[in-house]
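Sequence and structure are no longer studied apart. To make this concrete, we show below a single chain and its fold as tokens.
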Amino acid sequence: MTDRALHLGVDAGNSKTVALVADDTGRVLGRGRSGNGDIYGAGERAATRAVAEAVAAALTGADSPPDGAGLVSAAFCLAGVDYDDDHAFWHAELADRMPGLGARYTLLNDGFALLRAGAPDGLGVALSAGTGAAAVARGPAGPDGAVPEWSASFWIVGRFGGTDLGSAAVDAVISAELGLAPTTALTARVLERWDYPDVATLLERTTRRGADRRSRPALARDVLAAAAEGDAVARAIVLDQAERIAGYGVAARDRVGLSAPFPVVLGGSVLSSDHGLLREATVEALGRRLPGCPVVATHRSPVLGALAESYARVGRLDADVLAELDRQVFPPDFLLT
């Protein structure tokens, strides 16, 4: 069993949960991956199991006790940590599952992992478009020492991310079929993706009693690809989403009282897609709506941001640790969405 100071970082989203354990220098000693860790997206039982499995694998890899006693600090950045009741739920779960950890951890919405990944001092705005959407902000400490933080969570009513792109695509296909909207290349793409012969079958099979379960986030790649190929309907969907993402950046700024310049960190599988129109349009919209604020498309995975949160919690995050984190190499499928 290692006697070195160990840190745990956990990033839980709707597509996967990943955990890393590293020593005091930033060298990763253990890692774990599991499924959906969002208590809203997966349900409480499945989400807690996913987080527990990822953490257990990471601790085992680092030869550290499963109860968390070997950790000097931990950061749990979890989708679905939105309300005080969610915090209370996870605090109770962690006390039960990792009694050796005590209070040596931070519990945050998963958007803060992205923020710390792109802004190592932890200050600024982070906007993530993956399977779902996240918008968070953290400002400098006030005169009383309190650090203002805000997570959009259910404030996001004009949604963005893969699920929204997929839903917009289906709506566009149905509207085009009725002649209520322009024809679009999305029709052929959606039918092929879901293996339906025509739009009427698509509609019936996905809305009837006992409806087929189809992944709307999976359609995001078709929307982005069609937009890149010049389809006007797909392009309009993408540009509309870019404006909404930028709008939540403005809202996040205002909620914590940030003053320009501050970094705006972009992340998530949809914003990081090889089809760059959404990313480019979002950067352009942010330039108009948050002038003077640098936009950061970080190369660090959010789970490294979660690990950085753990180091920052105990004042051990410095340039050397960040450099060592950046040198870590993971199997190709570990971070795959």
